[in-house]
Design goal:
- The complex is a heterodimer of chains A (237) and B (330).
- Chain A has 237 residues and is α+β, with helices and mostly antiparallel strands.
- Helix content of chain A is 27%, strand content 29%.
- In chain A, a hairpin with a 2-residue loop joins strand 9 and strand 10.
- Chain B is of the alpha+beta class.
- Chain B is built from five helices and 21 strands.
- In chain B, the strands form four sheets. A seven-stranded mixed beta barrel of chain B has the order 13-20-17-18-15-14-21. Chain B has a six-stranded antiparallel beta sheet with strand order 7-6-9-4-1-11, with no helix packed on it.
- The longest helix of chain B is centred in the last third of the chain and has 31 residues.
- Classes of the chains: A alpha+beta (237), B alpha+beta (330).
- Chains A and B meet through strand 2, strand 3, strand 4 and helix 2 of A and strand 16, strand 19 and helix 5 of B.
Chain lengths: 237, 330
């Protein structure tokens, strides 16, 4: 954000979005996560939520509270100024803290209803799909759709697969899917259209924890393959 | 002291102002759909405005009061009655032990709010008691109320209400909320992708009646109108949405995001309903018609603060009336 190549716009009368560039890229997302983390430490008065996405960060604020406190000013402009000021502090060198999270995935066809058709689409063997999916380290670009649903990328070009033309009415929690260049894990039983190639026993969401979501924006994720027996053992534990 | 649900309604849930601070994890704020009715209900019984209430839809629950309580109903008029006697909205009411609150036909509005003095005992999840149905947390075991549920009250009302004021009574004052809702056009500010609409569609958006379709719930309202056309079909990169965001679906239909909306979305954002008009929209239901009117962000801010000042005056008046009634002997 050393270069002022950002665009700021209202996202309703009580939210503002800062957008960086117009494509999905690791460096853009890193800068946004750095800004997000900076604003967590140095919060802007009245901001009650922050929503990082691929190339945007949105701040949701308490319009009623701020307008009562500063009746003469435009609340939007006031927040914009503070957001711009914070953005200038974030440079390409600002390191965003990130963690590496290892997640076991069972790719057994009994838990992976689409792995055979995905392999056929790409004229690969099922083992190749597993090898390619576990080879990369993925970035959690954003969380959305469902509580704790991490949008991760990017999968190897060889297994980039479009969504199902007809979404399933029920995808079981823990299912690991691919949609285009993205990969993700369903935290809940839910309808969904991603190509399901495996399942993890790790709970992506636990309401009883103070941080209910297993993954956070900016995390790095690596999958490793486990057998069906191992999956069942972990599931019981 | 508790409320006993004799019969559950279509969707009765415990709600407050919602949970904020977790949208980075995809946890949507939720909360009461009509936060004005919810807050006024609390004011009328002397609660903090963000105390949890019960949000009900038609058909609504049948509720037995297993003790004395000071209650009020706000929002939709669902023909409420107590032991067969019709009761008005927005009047505080002393409910007597053993009396039964029932609802009948829907007259106006969609969501009715029941508040009790002192508030309900409810599960707190991430600093809010709002029921999150997907996560199954908050409210009463994270779910809608069911037959034979018992909801405890936080305060023993026998101690709050003086002896001579423990029998059923409709108190002689009410809140006039007509200035807080709009009856004509719902106002919006343009969204970041508004400019992709072609000129005819921009006209359609503001000049034609929109109809709320049956595929409408606490997550969002799907609208029926002439399909809107865009000049540029470029795929959008998913970004945040907020309560009131109007997304354009691929078929040309609009959806307005409401309390249980997802935190992000990949459909173009045509506009955003202003905060001041969300409660009015929350009281509409499938089949209702309305029109949209574009205003500036500066006006949206001014309208909200005017509404908040109106609410503040109402709160002062409520406190004054309650204090006067319960401290003077009548």
């Amino acid at each position: 954000m050393s270069t002022p190549s950002y665009h700021i716009y209202p996202c309703g009368d009580h939210a503002v979005t800062i957008q960086l560039g117009d494509e999905i890229s690791v460096s853009v997302n890193q800068k946004l996560i750095a800004l997000f983390q900076h604003l967590k430490q140095n919060s802007i008065e009245g901001v009650k939520d922050m929503i990082p996405a691929y190339n945007t960060l949105t701040l949701v604020y308490d319009l009623a509270l701020l307008k009562k406190k500063y009746p003469a000013n435009s609340v939007y402009e006031k927040i914009c100024l503070q957001l711009q000021e914070a953005a200038t502090l974030i440079t390409t060198e600002t390191p965003a803290a990130s963690r590496l999270v290892n997640i076991p995935v069972c790719y057994d066809i009994s838990l992976a209803p689409d792995i055979v058709s995905v392999s056929e689409i790409h004229q690969l063997r099922v083992d190749d799909i597993i090898q390619l999916h576990t080879a990369q380290t993925y970035r959690v670009y954003m969380i959305g759709f469902l509580p704790g649903f991490a949008y991760m990328g990017s999968v190897d070009e060889k297994i980039n697969t479009p969504r199902l033309s007809k979404p399933r009415t029920l995808v079981p929690a823990g299912s690991v899917g691919i949609a285009g260049e993205q990969t993700g894990i369903y935290p809940f039983d839910s309808p969904g259209g991603w190509q399901l190639i495996g399942k993890t026993s790790v709970a992506m969401f636990d309401a009883k924890k103070e941080t209910p979501c297993y993954l956070q924006p900016g995390d790095e994720v690596k999958f490793h393959a486990i057998s069906i027996d191992e999956f069942k053992k972990q599931k019981k534990a | 002291m508790s409320l006993h649900i004799i019969k559950n309604g279509l969707l009765d849930t415990i709600q407050d102002m919602g949970r904020y601070g977790y949208q980075q994890s995809g946890i949507n704020p939720g909360g009461a759909m009509d936060n004005i009715a919810m807050r006024i209900a609390n004011m009328l019984v002397g609660n903090d405005v963000d105390e949890a209430v019960i949000e009900m839809h038609f058909p609504a629950a049948e509720i037995e009061f297993e003790g004395t309580a000071l209650i009020v109903l706000a929002g939709a008029d669902l023909s409420a009655s107590v032991n067969g006697e019709a009761i008005p909205l927005l009047h505080p009411i002393i409910m007597q032990k053993g009396y039964i609150l029932r609802f009948g036909k829907r007259q106006t509005g969609t969501r009715s709010y029941l508040a009790v003095k002192g508030g309900f005992v409810a599960d707190d999840w991430l600093h809010s008691k709002s029921t999150h149905l997907k996560v199954k947390a908050g409210g009463l075991n994270g779910r809608a109320l069911q037959k034979n549920d018992r909801i405890l009250l936080k305060e023993k009302h026998a101690q709050i209400l003086p002896g001579e004021k423990r029998s059923f009574k409709i108190l002689p004052w009410y809140a006039n909320t007509s200035d807080l809702y709009v009856t004509n056009a719902i106002r919006f500010i343009p969204g970041n992708e508004y400019s992709v609409l072609d000129d005819a569609s921009k006209q359609t958006l503001e000049n034609e009646n929109l109809v709320i379709s049956r595929e409408s719930d606490r997550m969002g309202y799907r609208l029926q109108s002439q399909p809107l056309q865009v000049t540029n079909k470029k795929e959008m990169i998913s970004a945040a949405v907020t309560r009131g965001t109007m997304q354009l679906l691929p078929g040309g239909d609009l959806i307005i995001l409401m309390a249980d909306h997802q935190t992000t979305g990949g459909y173009p954002r045509m506009g955003h309903i202003i905060s001041a008009d969300i409660p009015s929209l929350a009281q509409m239901q499938a089949g209702d018609k309305f029109s949209l009117q574009q205003i500036s962000l500066a006006n949206a801010e001014r309208l909200l603060v005017a509404q908040e000042m109106n609410l503040q005056q109402l709160q002062n008046a409520c406190n004054f009336r309650l204090e006067e009634y319960f401290t003077t002997k009548k």
